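thread: overnight batch results

M.L. [08:02]
morning all. the overnight job finished for the chain we discussed friday. pasting input first so we're all looking at the same thing
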Amino acid sequence: MTSHARRPVPRWFVHTLIYAALTSSIVSSLGMLLVPSVASEFGVPVSTAQWMLTINLLVGAVATPIMGRLADGPHTRRLLLISLSVIVVGSVVASIAPTFTVFLIGRALQGLLYGTVPVTIALARRHLTYTESQPAISTLSVTVSVGLGLGYPLTGILASVFDLRAAFVFAALFVATAALGVWRMIPAGPDPLAPRTPFDATGAFLLGIGLSALLLWISEGQSWGWGSLTAIITVVVAVVTLTHWAVHSVRTLHPLVNLRVVRRPEVLLANATAIGFGTAMYIGLSIASLVAQAPAETGFGLAVPLMWAGFLMAPLSVGSLLANRAVRVLSRRFDMAVFLPVGAAVMTVASVVLWLAHGNFGALAVGMFLFGTGIGSGYAAMPALIARSVAVDQLGSAVSFNQVLRTVGGAVGAALSAAVLAAHPSETALGSAYSTDEGITMAFGVGVLCCAAVMAALVMHALATRDRDRV
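M.L. [08:03]
and the structure it wrote out:
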């Protein structure tokens, strides 16, 4: 029997997983700040340069559930190494790309970064005891927001001191060191205790097509026109394909995503919250970044140089780290589900600060800190709720689906903010390249409504659960 036992993990096992997840999260921050620089570098309109975000999002949404399902199998370490290697290749391609098309290929390869966090969580749950895995899982989950807070300043510095290509060279080197750490510190060989189940290729195909069509419709519907034939066909394809996928998943013995697990109350709660948090976070971060860099002539812009605009996101990391530490301590006395409404409440306060006082850089920084605190609380709780509700051999799939829903929420936030800004074009000498202050205020107001709605739903759920437990 001992030949089938898992080997003890190295001392730096958890630190290596956190570093790998953090590097991938930092690479994800290379997009938003660099859109204007990419447009200038390759001589394309800003609207076209936005595809560097869209293609990355599409590939990530398709790859994440596939990687999550594979993470439940015996070759999880190999999967993480291959994924990190592909991200390195994508970073190199983006750094040397002679044309915008080649650059997009590099950004597409980088899309695998979205799936690395669920893989690291699956490794932690598999190789650690339940008690040891809980703080590791919560820390791995908040690397997304921590990485953004660290990546934005790094991106701003590298792009300002050198050029945008230097940021992608740094990304390649950074991820390569993470791959080296995984190769050295994560136990090698197939896991003898992992299940060996057939891969659901049909489910992967249907979910990939459905998610791609859905995110494409959300991201590009504004530019196409929501009532255009292209938009209508795309959303019909999304609805029909995702419906077919859901039916297939329920009827299949080994589906890509086990929807029976997803229906469990705590998993359902975490997934619903993921969409709301993703929507609110993207609105807050993207509009705050726009306000910081926009010219003063717009009436709302703070005209902060690119290098310093990146530091606006640094408080996000601080808030996320502090919240994660607090959750780890308080979870010994309070149930993990408590931290979801708490996180939503803090994010609501952050959204109100941005809505009322976005004309001040200090207020933006405070808003980012509060956003980080709220996200850190919520994201630390989500995978922990999922982990205690599903079997180990379903964790990678369940957590990756949660990650996909965060991505979908981010795409919804992008579409909502873009629609609001487009409805309030500037009539100054700057033309319609920017919105008006009214549009910016309204976009922040949409973020307030999103956060408040999530908070209200979570508080109602908490009260209903408490009343039911008393009966």
